[in-house]
Amino acid sequence: MDMIGVIGLGVVGGTVAAAFEGVGIRVRRYDRYLPVGSAGDLAGCTVVFLCVPTPSGEDGSHDLSEVWSAVSEVEPCLPDGSVVAVKSTARPGTCEQLAADFPRLEFASVPEFLVATQPVETFTRPDRIVIGARSGEAAALLADLMTRVAPGAPVVILRPTEAELVKLCSNAMLAAKVTLANELAEVCRRFGVGWSRIQGVVGLDRRIGPDHLTVTAQRGFGGACLPKDLDGLIAASGAAGYLPPVLIQLAEFNRQIRDEAKADDAQAELRVGKP
Ligand SMILES: NC(=O)c1ccc[n+]([C@@H]2O[C@H](COP(=O)([O-])OP(=O)(O)OC[C@H]3O[C@@H](n4cnc5c(N)ncnc54)[C@H](O)[C@@H]3O)[C@@H](O)[C@H]2O)c1
Questions:
Q1: Is the dihedral of CA 53, 14, 211, 154 positive or negative?
Q2: What are 28's strand-pairing partners?
Q3: Nearest to 142 by CA among 44, 4, 267
Q4: CB 214: neighbour CB atoms within 10 A?
Q5: What is the pLDDT of residues 47-69, one digit of tens each?
Q6: Is the beta carbon of 53 within 6 A of some atom in ligand 1?
Q7: Rounded distance, CA 234 to CA 248, Å?
Q8: Is 78 near ligand 1, meaning CB less than 6 Å away?
């Protein structure tokens, strides 16, 4: 495999494209809105990484319209059996649904765990490479490709829906950790103790670890992924018949403390602005 395609050239797609080029693999790029390339440029690509956005829809579920739109557009250009590796974060069952809708193509979930502030470093040195494939051939092909850009990372082969769930459950765990740190900071404050005195020592426990324990001025968790992926997981679970009470509470608590922090900030600005 010496050529791949990348659809969507934002944080994830841009990093994927640069990393594969960095190890000598030719990359065909297509981004509808930047705009870069065209769907036709992907002709002849037998592996395509799909990195389009999956924002929150009105009901909190992942809006997958750009996923379907991009696949519909490139499908006629791709050879039979081409593998579309979905890096976009999507609801469980997305790859299976894509496979049913576009039977000429193979779909796999290859969730991305990079951190937006250090995209290259975290893309090329992940804790694990997760590949959710429907066939052994697709899994082997993607494992070979991914280990070229992230050598040494353990590779876990799963079914597509399992891989999609790994991504969403991982983000839910991180969201829970941030939320709990915020609540514990309030508890500590009631004893006249700053969380900064406690956080690092709690994080020394290897079962807990030091990451995602910081309480920021904005409070809670923000960014492009954790809030929307938590909402997306709640919506997907609800649609599957289970309203997850703790996750729902996490999301609500997070909105509440972030709104409070914003209101405090606005108050402080008003006080500073007073003559
Ligand atoms: N940013 C992160 O840190 C991160 C980490 C892990 C996973 N993800 C997931 O990866 C996906 C992409 O995230 P991102 O941060 O790279 O998004 P982004 O908004 O930075 O980039 C997406 C790109 O896709 C293009 N695009 C949109 N629709 C398209 C279409 N139909 N055809 C072609 N191009 C199209 C846009 O123009 C944009 O340049 C999301 O599902 C996100 O949840 C993001």
A1: positive
A2: 5
A3: 4
A4: 15
A5: 999 999 999 999 999 999 999 99
A6: yes
A7: 7
A8: no
Atom number, ligand 1, closest to the C-alpha of residue 87: 10
Does residue 55 have its Cβ closer than 6 Å to ligand 1? no
Cα–Cα distance measured from residue 236 to residue 228, given in angstroms and rounded to the nearest whole number: 12
Joined together, the tokens standing for residue 199 give: 């956080």
Both structure tokens of 239 = 């649609």
The predicted-structure confidence for 222-261, as pLDDT tens digits, reads as follows 999 999 999 999 999 999 999 999 999 999 999 999 999 9
What pLDDT, in 10s, does the model give residues 24-38? 999 999 999 999 999
Closest ligand 1 atom to Cα of 31: 34
Chain position carrying tokens 């297509």? 30
Q: What is the DSSP letter of 247?
A: H
Predicted confidence (pLDDT) at residue 275 exceeds the cutoff of 80? no
SS3 86: strand
Is residue 65 in contact with ligand 1, taking CB distance under 6 Å? no
For residue 51, CA distances in Å to 6, 88, 199, 215 come to 7, 5, 35, 30
Backbone dihedral angles phi then psi of residue 85, each to the nearest 5 degrees? -95, 110
Instruction: Note the pLDDT of residue 1.
Output: 76
Lowest mean pLDDT among 1-5, 95-99, 257-261: 1-5
Q: Which H or E run contains 229? A: helix 226-239
Nearest CA to ligand 1 atom 21: 10
At position 39, the amino acid (one-letter code) is: A
| Dist. CA 203–CA 199, nearest whole Å | 6
CA 7 to ligand 1 center in whole angstroms = 9
Q: Which of 190, 228, 173, 214 is CA-nearest to residue 56?
A: 228
70 lines ligand 1 (CB under 6 A): yes
- Per-residue confidence at 272, pLDDT binned at 50, 70, 90? confident
What angle is formed at CA 19 by the lines to CA 72 and CA 92, rounded to 5 degrees? 45
Supply the residues annotated as catalytic. Answer: 225
